[in-house]
Structure formats: C-alpha cells, structure tokens
Amino acid sequence: MLHAARLKIRVYTASHWKRTAIAFAAGALSVLAMAPFFFSPILLVTLPVLVWLIDSAYAGRHLSATREPRSPTKAENHADAVEQSASLSTDRAALLRAAASGWFFGFGYFLFGMFWIGEAFLVEAEKFAWLLPVAVLLLPAGLAAFFAIAAVIAKIVWRPGFSRVLILATAIGITEGLRGFIFTGLPWNTLGYALTFPLVLMQSSGLVGIYGLTVLTVIVFAGPLVCLAGWQAGQSAQDQTPSQSWRAVTGIAVSFTILVALVGYGSARLIADNGAVVSGVKLRIVQPSVPQRDKWQPEKQREIFDLHVDLTGRGPDGTRDNLAGITHVIWPEAAMPFLPLESPQALKEIGDLLPPDVYLISGALRVEEPQIQTSGADTTAPATAPGTNVSASRLRKETTRAASRRRAYNSLMAFGPNGELIAVYDKIHLVPFGEYLPFQSFLESIGLEQLTRVRGGFESGRSPRPIIDVPGLPPFVALVCYEAIFPAAVVQGKERPKLIINVTNDGWFGDTTGPRQHLHMARVRAVEEGLSIIRAANNGISAVIDPYGRLRSQLNLNQRGVVDSVIPVPAPPTIYALSGNLLYMIYIIASASLLVGLRLFRI
To answer: Are residues 163 and 265 in the same domain?
Structure first.
C-alpha cells in the first residue's frame, strides 16, 4: 500500500535544491496527462507534491536542513505540525518559496509540454536556428509565472486539511483562465485537458468548459493522496481524532463523487447521440502534406497548386473520380502559396476544377490596398481628385507611406463553381512572433522578423467572428490554425452557427506532440459547442469531429491524400455553449470572496 505520509515527509524535509528538482520533475511528469499520452493518473502524485511543496514553503532553512526523524511516529507528527502551521505563515519569505515551487513546477510542465515549438525554428535553420534556445526556454519560463502566481495566491489563504486542495484548485483555476487572455492568450495544454480523456469524461467540457474542468482536475487528482497522507499520519501516531478521520474520508469522497458525476453526465450525453448526418452534403478534405520548407519557395508555387488540384480530383483510394458525388472541397490553411485573388489564372483553374454545384473552401492569403491619405482625407485616386493642391513631392511621400501600410490577412475563402469568390473570413487571433511581431518597429530594426516572413506581419480580422453562408452547407464559423485552442471564442455573436470549419498548417512542428495536442483541443471545442468540426490540415491531422468529440474520419500525420465524409448534425446546444464561462466565473468569484473573507476575519 502506498504510504502517502512518508512521501509527504520526503517533500517536507527536502533541501532547497531537492525541492527545486522535485517541483520541476512533478511539472514535467504532469505533461503525461496531456495528449497524446493521456496518462492522467500521474496527477494523483504530481499535484499532491505541489500541495506539499506549498505546505512546507513557510518553514525555510530550518526545516529543509532537518533530517527526517528516525521514528515514523515522530516524523508523522512533525509533518502534521508543518501542515497545521503552514496556514499561519504568509511572510514574504514564505510567499517567495511558494512562488519558486510553483514556478519550477510550471517550467517543467511547459518545457516538456511545448518543446515542439523549437521545430518551427529549424524549418529555415540558417535564418532562425539561433533563436531556438530562446524560444524553447523563454516561453516556458514566462508561462511558468502563472503557476508561480497560483502558488502565491494559494499560500496567502492557505488552510490545513482538504481545504488547501480547494484553495489550490481555485488559484490554478484563476491563473489558467488568465493565461488564456493575457498578452493575447495562450491556453495551450490547460490543466483541465487531463479530464478530457476518455471520451466519456470529455463530455463535461460541454457543461463547465475547459477552465471549469481545470478546477475539477485539481480537486479530483490532488484530493485523494493529500487526504490519505493525513489519515495515515494520524493512524501511525495513534492520536487521530474522529473528526480528523472524517475529514480525510470526506476529502477522498468529494474527489470520487466528482469523478463519478462526470462519468454519469458523459454517459448520458453519449447515449443521446442518434448519429444523424446533414443530408445532401459530402465533403472532400485535402491533405497535401507539403514540406514547410518548400511552402513559400516561389519556384514551388505552381507545383504546390497543381498538387492540390490533382488530389482534389482523386478519391481516397487514389483513383481519379473528378469529384463525383462530392459537394464541397476543403483545402488547408494558406493552401495556395500566392495571392489567389490577384491571379486570374488561378481563379480560372479553380473554376475548371469544380463541377456545377461544387464549392471550394480554402485557406489563402489576401492583401488589402489602403486608401491614400491626402490633406487628411482618404481617397482612392488623390492624383486626379479635383480641387487638390498637393505638391508632387508630398504626394509621393504620402503614396509611399500608404503603400507601406498594405494590409495582409491570413484568410479562409469560399469559391463557387466558376472560380468566383463568394465568402471570406480574415483570421482574428494571430500568433505572436509567427504572424506578427510585438514591438514590430524595434524588433525589425535589429533584424528580427516573424516566422511567416510577411513584411509588416498580418493584420487581425474584424470581430465578432462572422457566420458564413456557402450554398449547400449549414451556416458555419471559421477557425484558422490555433484559433481552435481558445474556448468561448468560437461563437461571438447572438446567432449560433451549425458547423465549425478549421483550416490549419501544423507543418511547422514536425512529427511531435504539438500537432496531436492541437487536434485534441479542437475535439474539446466541438464538445463545448455541441458542433461538428471539419478540420483540414496541411500535413495532418485532418479530421471530421462530431459534436461529441469522436473522430468520424481522419488522415494521419504526414499522410498525403484525401478523406471523404458526411457531416454529423449539431447536438442540442450545451450549457457551456449557452452560458460560456459563466459557471466557472461564478465559482471563482464565490470561492475567492469566501477565502478572502476567512483570511480577513482570521476564521
């Protein structure tokens, strides 16, 4: 039987450097709870370790320098004293130690969970490889600050017993929510994804969202071992009171009850699925698997476009069928490595490719020519506008300045059977350093540029996210690339869509955990909203995801080909789809208010 009390003592009595190593290792191992490993039971150990690190943060040098008492009874009494005293110490040194434990936990978590980001700097290694150590180390270091803040928040209102598990759950719930918004947000591998596997547990994201699941994750996985350690310590010391035993049992029961409730809710939701599909629609998703290094080579433009055209005209078995029975074709993000709206030849070839009543939806780039400013007014033709009195030199300056503000967009476009543009969506949530440079003027002046190498970067599209109508398809919203990782940002207006189309290019990240994590987060978005997601990815993983997170059809990573599929009908709107993060916010506000009140009144 696992002696949790002994493990707790080991953490309590560890030296400074051992505490650092323990925190880092606990965070790194926690990544195993994420896709593609899905080994959530690891959190039954790593999250209690974080609790005990915060417990013992107050004691400082005198505890870490103390050897573990040889007598088990004395050791457990010593550990119990640490736990009871921990809530009384919130001096500056204690808060700094708690912050350090949280930071090293977070650093291990993000370093091992997002190491794949370094692959993007090797695509053009001769230009960007020198930035690889900076990106691989600095990004996790920055994100780790959110766990450090959570540890400090928790330490301020820390209490003994199972209460501290609830406190830590609330603190991490707050900071993981903030991570999704601050500095444009990066909610990648939010801790709540640990409760989205297997499929039956994933359904609860449609109830409380991924941030609500984050709170529940800490309670479910930290509670049992923390309570077991307290109970074992009392048993060994033979001085356990009935109330202490009851508290330990209650804490374990709370964690178990939450887990059972999530399984029950998920089972009921899955049973309600009748498997219906949208009538009269059959999709063909094209996955060209173009190497990222070739993607933007000018001499490769024709070859890449022809590849998309050729794959489109072939079925999943590779035989040419000229789109027989297909109603809509989906190409991935930036499928055409040029500006299709400025290429009449490309539009003609799209029209030649598509039979009557067949439509193409594709990721593509577009530019918007700005109107040139003269005399404080915008005009499309200032040189010929009557009544203007602007010198030729000034006009040239204004024209040059305006031309430099040419706006580029990473877009999704829909084309009709004749190659005509019928709808366009411009990506709203851009990737920092990938699609635009923060502090652009300064960074470009020292020689830095974003990975996409679009001079000046991309512009963000206009909010709210529009609902797009394409003949034959249910009304849908578009998500370009990592827009699919943002909960509660899928539907931004009062009117609800009936479908989500996600085009992406994960070719930057090679055959790593990154593309697999990205797919899993898209599956959770489908469950949250109760909508199917059609996902077209350059190198994978392209898939049709039903409203319950199941992969109805897919192409594997780095597989070149197509997949033909129908569209599962929407599920009834989920509670999360109707209320967003409301339940999560109510819990956070109520819990935070209660804890602050208890602290202020020393209850």
So the answer is: yes
The answer to whether 501 touches 414, Cβ cutoff 8 Å, is no
Residues 589 and 553 in one domain: no
Cα–Cα distance for residue pair 359/361, rounded to 1 Å: 7
Question: Which among 176, 481, 528, 529 is annotated as catalytic?
Answer: 481
Look-up of token digits 């926690």? 30
- What is the domain extent for residue 197? 4-272+581-600
Same domain, 216 and 316: no
**Residue reference for tokens 């959530």:** 40
Q: What angle do CA 585, 586, 589 make, to 5 degrees?
A: 80
Residues 562 and 503 in one domain: yes
Q: Indicate whether 102 belongs to any domain.
A: yes
Q: How many CB atoms lie within 10 A of CB 16?
A: 13
- Cα separation of 214 and 565, whole Å? 33
DSSP helix/strand/coil, 236: helix
The pLDDT value recorded for residue 475 is 97
Residue 64: enclosing H or E segment and its boundaries? helix 61-64
450 belongs to a structural domain = no
Statement to judge: residues 413 and 523 lie in one domain: yes
If asked whether residues 231 and 308 sit together in one domain, one would say no
Note the pLDDT of residue 229.
86
Catalytic residue check, 333: yes
**Rg of the chain over CA atoms, in angstroms?**
28
CATH number of the domain enclosing 521: 3.60.110.10
| pLDDT mean for each 10 residues of the chain (603 residues) | 80 92 98 98 98 82 46 52 53 92 98 92 78 88 98 92 93 97 92 98 97 98 90 61 68 93 97 93 97 90 96 95 96 95 96 96 91 46 38 42 70 96 94 70 59 67 91 97 91 88 93 96 98 96 98 96 98 95 94 84 67
In a domain, 541, yes or no: yes
Q: Does 103 fall in a domain? A: yes
pLDDT of residue 390: 42
Q: What does the buried/exposed string (b/e) look like for 270-309 if buried means 16 or more CB atoms within 10 Å of the residue's CB? A: eeeeeeeebeebbbbbbbbbbebeebbeeebbeebbebbb
Of 333, 459, 483, 528, the catalytic one is 333
Q: Which of 427, 459, 528, 529 is catalytic?
A: 427
| pLDDT of 502 | 98
In the annotation, is 427 catalytic?
yes
Known active-site residue 481: yes
What Cα–Cα distance (Å) separates residue 104 from each residue in 21, 90, 142?
8, 20, 11
Domain count, the chain: 2
Assess whether 238 and 302 both reside in one domain: no
Residues 349 and 253 in one domain: no
